[in-house]
Amino acid sequence: MTVLVTGGAGFIGSNFVFYMLDAHSDDRIVCVDALTYAGNLETLSPVMDNPAFRFVKADITDRAAMEKVFEEEKPDVVVNFAAESHVDRSIEDPGVFLNTNIIGTAVLMDTCRKYGISRFHQVSTDEVYGDLPLDRPDLFFTEETPIHTSSPYSSSKASADLLVMAYHRTYGLPVTISRCSNNYGPYQFPEKLIPLMIANALNDKPLPVYGKGENVRDWLYVEDHCKAIDLILRHAPVGETYNIGGHNEMRNIDIVRLILQRLGKDESLITYVTDRKGHDLRYAIDPTKIHKDLGWLPETKFADGIVKTIDWYLSHREWWENIISGDYQNYYRKMYGSRS
Ligand code: NAD
Ligand code: TYD
């Protein structure tokens, strides 16, 4: 089958492209990506010459461009990773989040309706559920947890989820949704917690921890996320939503300490900075449904995954140094300059 992957030049999308080409040699993968600041064609260079792969530079909000890709490729399945994905950027400038994450999803689904597909999969996030209190470790997000968003980012992702379910009910579009916890692994843009801390530590720069560093996230190795989506595409009934997470809750400060320890750097690099506005306290997924229905379980333990990730950033210095040498400097000054 032909799988159209949007946002495949970003972090999770590129890992998904690699995973699919590896796992299903009879499938064709077409990647559509607008190459925003977060998209990096260099990431896809190992597969650019693969005859089972095609890259198309296009914006998912561009209806004519989407129709052209569908005319040419006639995809069976669409997996929508394309999004603006960084909470801090959404606080600074929500508009582009609404455009890509909501309008872009609608344009893609309209195109799916026009040309016909067997599955539209929306890659969503656990952030649509808002947050959980720090003093109630017994509480988890299930698929029944009400949507209750905090940031412009999570609100835009929740809006897209509602549209996806509406297109299913109203037009019978064969959809599925997955809501995953925080991912980590190779090719993550160094504005996100783990790669940012690794890059700063390696450059002996301060490690900016928001607030007291006590916020909790539920971390999942990116390949486990890719496997879960693949299972959903092949085995889940249409109309279903699945939470994906690995029961791996960590406080931010503990992750930062672990990175410093692994890199042999001093904890004096840790700098506590002004907290994020509306900062979600804790995310924690109950993955019972995907385990029971599809047999999915995370395979990579955090202790192993974080070492693999740190080692990847050590051995791919050029990849992230290229990123942090350009426009990223302006971003960093703007976001962190007035924060300490
Ligand atoms: P990312 O920011 O690394 O990559 C996003 C990609 O989408 C980039 O390649 C970018 O160029 C592309 N893109 C952005 N706007 C586009 C547009 N209008 N048209 C076409 N392409 C466009 O993001 P990521 O971390 O890989 O996240 C991928 C998806 O997974 C997102 O939908 C995100 O909401 C979701 N998600 C991420 C996490 C996480 O921890 N990173 C967790 C759960 C869900
Ligand atoms: P992030 O990687 O932006 O993911 P999300 O906000 O989507 O969970 O941030 C993860 C956690 O790390 C979050 O609680 C905010 C915190 N954080 C810092 O303390 N310092 C930083 O420089 C960044 C980017 C994040």
3D structure, described in words:
The protein has about 350 residues and is of the alpha/beta class. The chain has one domain (about 1-335): Rossmann fold (3-Layer(aba) Sandwich). The chain is about 45% helix and about 15% strand. It has 12 helices and 12 strands. The protein has helices at about 10-25, 65-75, 85-90, 95-115, 150-170, 195-200, 220-235, 250-265, 290-295, 300-315, 315-325, 330-335, and strands at about 1-5, 30-35, 55, 75-80, 120-125, 175-180, 180-185, 205-210, 215-220, 240-245, 250, 270-275. The chain has a 7-stranded parallel beta sheet with strand order 3-2-1-4-5-6-10, sandwiched between helices. Helix 5 (about 150-170) links the parallel strand 5 (about 120-125) and strand 6 (about 175-180). It is globular, with a radius of gyration of 19 Å. The N and C termini lie far apart (about 50 Å). The relative contact order is 0.13. The structure holds nicotinamide-adenine-dinucleotide (NAD) and thymidine-5'-diphosphate. The site of nicotinamide-adenine-dinucleotide (NAD) has 30 residues, from helix 1, helix 4, strand 5 and strand 7. Nicotinamide-adenine-dinucleotide binds near residues 6, 39, 81, 123 and 157.
